[in-house]
Every structure is written in structure tokens, then in C-alpha cells.
Amino acid sequence: xxxxxxxxxxxxxxxxxxxxxxxxxxxxxxxxxxxxxxxxxxxxxxxxxxxxxxxxxxxxxxxxxxxxxxxxxxxxxxxxxxxxxxxxxxxxxxxxxxxxxxxxxxxxxxxxxxxxxxxxxxxxxxxxxxxxxxxxxxxxxxxxxxxxxxxxxxxxxxxxxxxxxxxxxxxxxxxxxxxxxxxxxxxxxxxxxxxxxxxxxxxxxxxxxxxxxxxxxxxxxxxxxxxxxxxxxxxxxxxxxxxxxxxxxxxxxxxxxxxxxxxxxxxxxxxxxxxxxxxxxxxxxxxxxxxxxxxxxxxxxxxxxxxxx
Amino acid sequence: xxxxxxxxxxxxxxxxxxxxxxxxxxxxxxxxxxxxxxxxxxxxxxxxxxxxxxxxxxxxxxxxxxxxxxxxxxxxxxxxxxxxxxxxxxxxxxxxxxxxxxxxxxxxxxxxxxxxxxxxxxxxxxxxxxxxxxxxxxxxxxxxxxxxxxxxxxxxxxxxxxxxxxxxxxxxxxxxxxxxxxxxxxxxxxxxxxxxxxxxxxxxxxxxxxxxxxxxxxxxxxxxxxxxxxxxxxxxxxxxxxxxxxxxxxxxxxxxxxxxxxxxxxxxxxxxxxxxxxxxxxxxxxxxxxxxxxxxxxxxxxxxxxxxx
Lengths: 309, 309
Description:
2 copies of one chain form a homodimer.
Chain A: E1 5-11, H1 15-27, E2 30-36, H2 40-48, E3 54-56, H3 59-63, E4 68-71, H4 78-85, E5 94-97, H5 103-109, E6 118-124, E7 145-148, H6 156-168, E8 172-175, H7 178-204, H8 211-216, H9 222-228, H10 233-242, H11 244-267, H12 270-289
Parallel strand pairs in A: 1-2, 1-4, 2-3, 4-5, 5-6, 7-8
Antiparallel strand pairs in A: 6-7
Helix pairs in contact in A: 4-5, 7-9, 7-11
């Protein structure tokens, strides 16, 4: 129970910020937690469930006197928020963000950071398909990566202090170049999300298969896509608009690859399909061995294995 | 504990057959359970863990005297098995299968069914990413759909008896036209699987992002794809080869749809993306309301929600 920052200002009070609030309170990591959200209802909720000690209708007021400011708004909203808070940031404060894209956030925020304030871009690789201030929980970051993409002139002491907060919330921290971050994320997160959205959209407007059938028989496969495709629309719109080049690159590769498999199906090339499916199976094993997912069948989602005997 | 069939012959002893064995034993639904698998190791395992009372190296021997024969082999192996067992089927027996494709299985099996034997095609919509005789568990079918696609001359009494077995194992049973089944499955299962295989394959041979990075940072999105893409390669090869027309149709629609979203990204059309992502979110709600998936965040896979406060 060591206080790492005296006053943390959470700008935006959605899934990530509310989970941080729970985690910081559980660990006694922040002297006080203040917050800002655009919506009066969100601010009221944040007080009601104890996320924040105080809430403010303006981001500028919220950051006054804070030694850590967390920008937890959609990527597209970062520039305006940074401009608004800029004159109000305390000398010696650290500003971080939790956006899923890093180059665009740096371009939007860094020009507004005054001398004497550190901006250390970050990205917690954790989340669920829910959003809003009630969706947070204090263990969201446990054993998950929190990537930091420090800038060339980042102060090592400020970086170390932020890192210690993230680790105290349970996260594993790694540093990465911003451009490389955006490429990696395009592969492991952004493009898979777009594909899931697309598949769910296709199912939604098929004439020969009714929507109720799609919903009833969604086991195995489609069901998992719908969970991904239920994620926050604003957040994901901004991700695709701001990590455009990397996503378009991976989408192009995906389309090529899909056409090769489509051709194998059309030509009846079973050997090609079998070999391909065998290779992809090995990757899953790697992920389980790396501790990135449960090895329980079907994510442990079904009734307990072996219970039927 | 009502015995519904005196002797059930399981042809193939993978995930589905072994789960049926557990479920039938738990419910006392079969007088005895015999089995056949090509592999001597699988047969030994089936005896060792009590799936079968007896195992046979030949399918023909296994079906002798059985009043229910379950074809639980990959779709591509159905024709040869049906030809082999045909002269050995008992008068009055019912043959069913558990293949994920129905028109191709009917074409492969029905010509080999002798007079006095009923063939009732079936498809349990349940599974995990694991396979083999040790992967089964008795609750796999609980609250899952088991679709039957009876033929025009199916005996109602035989159908009712099979249905009562499936219900006793916990399944929900529905009947469907075989062609319509194959269309619905192309949407909710087959095409999503191909897409997941493709995305995992793309990640596997990217040069600028290393495989170890893909594995380490696979949270959110990609991780779910890898689970799907870890499914049995033989089974899935056969699905795509035998439900070719329906899968190619849906793949064509998917590619069109993906290109429209890709264009929206390229043109910076945020409104299009936001509207699309908002619509797909509603489908997820429908699936949860239909009881087809858990509403727990991230499938309940993360540490318990709210536990951190």
C-alpha cells in the first residue's frame, strides 16, 4: 500500500479508467482520484460507485494539481482534450494515455505538452466487450501487457514511476517503438476486429438465412465473432481512422490469403487446406504456453469438463 | 435412467463420440456401448477410460447387433464407412451421423442403407477446439442444438426414439431441411472458421512482426481467432470440400463487405464505420438473450469481475 501519485486525474471514465480506479484503490496507489467525463450521468455514476473522490465537468479543472493525468478517451478525442488541459497541467506532472494507437496519439497530444510536463504514451492490452463507468473491475490488468512507447526525451525517473504504478495494478510492462506498436496491434487486434465486424454484418443482411436462425445457431465460430463485434463503436472507428496504413496493409495481406484458400476450396484442393489448418493449430499452442489464454476447452465457457461422468 | 437403445455402436471415437459415451453412461441411456476407431491407440484409450464396453478394429464388426449406429468420423470418411457396414446392419436399426455438413453426408451414406434400416442424419452443434477420445465430457451437449435433417421416408417412431436419446443427453433438438442446414452452417460456423484460419495464417508469415510478438500480444481479438483456428484440420478440410457452394457464396459476400469497410477506412469515412459497428453490437445482444452465450465479460475468461474493489 504505497501511494505512487498524490492525485490522479482520469480524463474519460469508461472501462479502462474505471478499472484503473478500482485497481488503484485496492492497492492504495493514489492519494486521491479525480475524474472528468463529458456526460453528467457518467460523472454521477463515478461518484455513486466511488470511482472518483471528485468529478469535474471540465477536463481543464480536473487536471489542476494532478501529478498523473490519464487520457482515457477515444483516440479521435485526444487532440481537443490535450489542447484544453495544456495550460492547466501542473509543473512536474506526467500525462499518459490508454489509446490503442500510438503514433496518432503522439501527433495529437505531444504538441500541447508544456515544458516541465512529461508525456508517456501507453496502451493497456486489456478489455472486455463492455464499456462505461460500471464496466470496470480492479483485476482487468492482472497479467496483461501494458505497452509504453516513451518519446526520445522522456525522463527516466518519470517513466520508472509510471511503470511502478502499472506493475502495482498487476500489469506486465514493456516498451516499444510507436510505429512498431501500431504494426503489431494491426495484426493482433485491429484487423481481427474489422474482420469480426464484417462477418457479423454479412450475417445480418443475408436473405436466405434469417437473423433469428443466425442467433439461435450461433454456437462455434460465429458466436466468438459477435463478442468481438460488440466492442465500443466510437473507440473502434477511431482506431481504424488513425491506424489506417497498418490496417490497410494487413487487410491487403488477409484478402490475398483468403483468396488462396477460397481457390483451394473451389478447386477441391484438400491437401492445401489440411496443411494450412495444421500450421495454424501450432500457433494456438504457442499462445497457451505464453500464458496469454486459458487452455480450458471453449475458454472454459461450457459446463465443467469431465463433470458428466 | 431409461435405456433407450440396447446397443449403441460408435463409429469413430473423437470428441463427439466420447462425449456421447459419457452422457449415455451418466444417464443410463444405452444397454451397452461398443466402438470402432481406426487407430489401435484410440481403441485402447476407449477401453481404458471406459468409453466402450467393447471395441472392434473393423466398423463392420462393431455395428453387428446394434440398434443405434452413430457415424462420428470426418465427413470425407462417411462413404467408405457406410459401404463397409452396410451388409452388417441389423434389421430395424437406426443409423445417424454427427457430420457438420448434411447434403454431402446424405449423398455418401443413404445409397448404402439397406431396406429395414433407418438413416436419420444429425448434427450436434457443440464442440471444443480439442479432439480425440480423451477430449469428451458428458455435459458437452447440454443446452446445445442437435439438428436433425430427416429424409422424406423417415419412420416417425425411429425419429422419435433418436430424438428422446438426444434430449436425454441434454440437447435441444430441431429439424431442418438438409440444404437449408448447410446454408445456415456456412454462415454461423464454416465461413467464420475459414476466416479465423486465414487471419492466423497471415500473422504467421508476416516479416515485420515476429511470431513471438504475435503470441505475446495476442490479447483481445486475435486470441479468439486462434482458438477457432486450433480445431481439427481433417474435420475442417472435409467441411469446406463438402459444403463448397454455400461456403463460396458466403465468402463472396464477405469479401464484398470487407472491401466496402476497407474503402471506408481508406477514405476516412468515420460515419460509415461507426454506423456499421453500432449495428453489429445489437446482434451480440440477441445471442445473449437467446441463451447461446454467456454475458460475462470476455466469456468470463478474465479474473472475476468486480473482484478487485
